[in-house]
Amino acid sequence: MVVSRLTGSVRVVGAGLLGTSVALGLRARGVDVILADASPTHVAIAIDLGAGRAPLDSDEPVLVVVCVPPDVTARVVAAELAAFPDAVVTDVASVKSGILDELVTVGADVSRYVGSHPLAGRERGGPLAARADLFVGRPWVVAVHDGIGYQRGSVVDDLILDLGATLVELTAEEHDRGVALISHVPQVVSSVMARRFLDAPNAALGLAGQGVRDVTRIAGSDPDLWVQILGANAAPVRDILLAYRDDLDRFIDALADPTAPGARKRVAEELAGGNLGVERLPGKHGTDKRFTTVIVMVDDRPGQLARLLAEIGEIGVNLEDLRLEHSPGRQVGLAEVQVLPEAADRLTTELAERGWRIAG
Ligand SMILES: NC(=O)c1ccc[n+]([C@@H]2O[C@H](COP(=O)([O-])OP(=O)(O)OC[C@H]3O[C@@H](n4cnc5c(N)ncnc54)[C@H](O)[C@@H]3O)[C@@H](O)[C@H]2O)c1
Ligand SMILES: O=C(O)C(=O)C[C@]1(C(=O)O)C=C[C@@H](O)C=C1
Question: Where does the Prephenate/arogenate dehydrogenase domain start and stop, copy by copy (predicted)?
Fold first, then answer.
């Protein structure tokens, strides 16, 4: 059994995507996990998945992790602080300032509360979407505040490190401004873009490749959750959207007469600005990019992908990640296989020798 930093039981309230993922990750380290949820079905599914056990009257958790929708988070945190007077309580809600303010207003014991937020998730909710490795390598913000000391709060650091995430300390305000830019506005832009597809001809949609899928994956997110997130972080999100409107206006102006003197330069400058921006994202074209991508063409026939994965195993190369690009009606899919840079050349050569077509 893998050793954990955490000692003692951890109670997870909210056995949806986030809660069940936290619970599965902790169970993999041998931690005793107690599961609670307003939905008995979600608790039952999470228990069936091996994410933990039902609560007992004798439970004395060292840590409570509240993983419920943002609009009920403060209320649930306050109830957990009251029910477990020796436990530290954290939550994982996507917006932080309002929750701390609400807890202070209702007089909750914030000397045992520190909010947090893993920057990891999926567009689907519920326990069945959970993954034990959801947080591995992802940033996890601890929203530090003056009401709790470092030693008391260190059990939350242990949780984050046990789940393989990277701890980042920010104030609640710094966090909320940051996620407006890197999470909340991208959600709005993705939704607005995908909305354009509603009245598009099928023939146009059939041309969809990976670019549009990258930009619109999160358009499939849960509107109930995002109404709450955007409402709770409205001011910073709005500021960025106003700047974004100016960006779009410059593009629109430049394209009004694309052959006019200077118009091409203006369009090129806008695009070059995007090149520079994306290079600033850690792990994207930057110096800490960890894996090399080998793109393999896979015939759209039963068993081909399984054969590819089996042969990569036979070659003895570890598959770090896999992404599939496949459009309905096409005869070939592209498997983007991520491997350690030092293994990429050998994998490419040996796959080609075995008859696979390498697309990049
Ligand atoms: N979805 C993401 O990608 C993501 C990523 C990071 C953080 N978060 C945050 O995590 C939290 C949970 O999101 P999720 O995606 O896991 O949602 P989810 O819908 O998958 O799970 C929420 C769970 O909370 C339960 N619940 C609702 N009200 C409750 C209450 N009053 N008491 C007890 N249980 C209650 C629901 O039954 C459900 O099982 C949210 O605050 C969200 O902002 C989400
Ligand atoms: O990758 C996704 O599907 C997500 O929705 C993850 C994402 C994000 O924007 O990074 C979304 C909201 C959460 O608060 C944290 C993570």
Answer: 8-289
- Using pLDDT thresholds of 50, 70 and 90, give the confidence band for residue 331: confident
Ligand 2 pocket mutation, candidates 122, 218, 229, 240, criterion most atoms within 8 A of CB: 218
164 and 182 fall within a common domain: no
Structure confidence at residue 98 as a pLDDT band (50, 70, 90): very high
Enumerate residues 6+ apart whose C-beta is below 8 A from 140.
116, 117, 118, 119, 120, 160, 163, 165, 166, 167, 168
Q: Contact at 8 Å (CB) between 185 and 237?
A: yes
115 lines ligand 1 (CB under 6 A): no
Rounded to the nearest angstrom, the distance between the alpha carbon of 101 and the centre of ligand 2 is: 23
212 within domain boundaries: yes
Residue 18: CB within 6 Å of ligand 1?
yes
CATH of the domain at 339: 3.30.70.260
Q: In angstroms, how far is the first alpha carbon of the chain from the final one? A: 40
Residue 336 domain flag? yes
- Tell me what the mean pLDDT of segment 120-131 comes to: 93
Question: Which residue range(s) make up the domain with 354?
Answer: 292-358
Do 150 and 210 fall within a single domain?
Answer: no
Residue 119 near ligand 2, beta carbon < 6 Å? yes
CA of 179 to the centre of ligand 2 (A): 9
Q: What is the number of domains present in the chain?
A: 4
- The structure's pTM equals 0.84
ipTM above 0.90, yes or no: yes
128: CB partners within 8 A, 6+ apart:
45, 49
Residue 346 phi, psi (nearest 5): -65, -40
What six digits make up the tokens of 254? 């430049």
Distance 175 CA to ligand 2 centre (A): 14
